[in-house]
Amino acid sequence: MPEGHTIHRAARLQNKRFKGKVLRSESPQGRFDSGSSQIDGQELRKIYANGKHLFYEFDSGDFVHVHLGLFGKFRTLSLPTDDPVSENCRWLLTSDTDRLHLAGPTVCEVIDSDQVDAIRRRLGPDPLVKRHREDPVEKMAKRLSRRTIPIGAAILDQKVLAGLGNVYRAEILYLIGLDPFTPSNQVSIQDLSALWSESVRLLTLGERAGRIVTTEPADVGKQRARDLGRYERLYCYKRHGEQCRRCGDTIRTADIDGRNIWWCPTEQT
DNA sequence: GCTGCATGATGAA
DNA sequence: TCATCCTGCAGCA
Q1: The pLDDT of residue A195
Q2: Domain housing A109
Q3: Is A73 a catalytic residue?
Q4: Are A59 and A111 found together in one domain?
Q5: Under 8 Å CB-to-CB from A177, ≥6 apart: which residues?
Q6: What is the pLDDT of residues A45-104, one digit of tens each?
Q7: Which of A14, A96, A138, A239 is the most exposed place for a label (fewest CB within 10 A)?
Q8: Any idea which nucleotide's C1' is nearest the CA of A69?
């Protein structure tokens, strides 16, 4: 379930277990053999998250760069355990007390600090990063000013905004009442500002909860977020043909750049 | 058991 | 715009 909140949460929780420890590094699957052996036996300084990217900094100055893509998954386990390591484990990190298991990532590679910087530089502002050199809304506006692609396509572009995925895209545009087909350069600065603050609010919530929840208590009653069913947590994602929770109009769907989006034509103009 | 789809991204055409 | 890579599971026979 990797959107930005998953990545930042993984960094936070993994730092608790592995930061500052000397680690055994292996690739049971074999596809990260040379990389994993390069850092075997080193101390992990810290794990950093940027957008959907993770960087594991080791004592030697090497970094392991991980991007989960659509299918990548982490599993952490306390040791000792009887659980066998699965065959598809790309990267296995082990301390004396914990085990980290990575499967199915799009990227898992050893890079240097210059390469880390290059990746960070090309990313847009990340709603889960607290300090920004440049005002994030202005930065987004700058990167959108000459573009006529639909805003629904633009906010999945990680150079514009780093960390949103297909669920948050649909939900955030719904919450700020913006039609996903609005040309990017026609989106007002007020709407961009709302887009940013809703991104910060919702990804922060998601990072804490470990799942994407966008519905407000007023719309779902008094149930706690974790007790809500999959679709109770969301307003429009994958709700094609259902009634909009707020106005009763029918939720529509369309394809934007090869990804499905869902929206309410009354709430979003 | 098989098929297709999915919260992602890239590189070729 | 398409094909490709990575994995898991829902839906269907």
Answers
A1: 98
A2: 4-122
A3: no
A4: yes
A5: A267, A268, A269
A6: 999 999 999 999 999 999 999 999 999 999 999 999 988 899 899 999 999 999 999 999
A7: A96
A8: B8
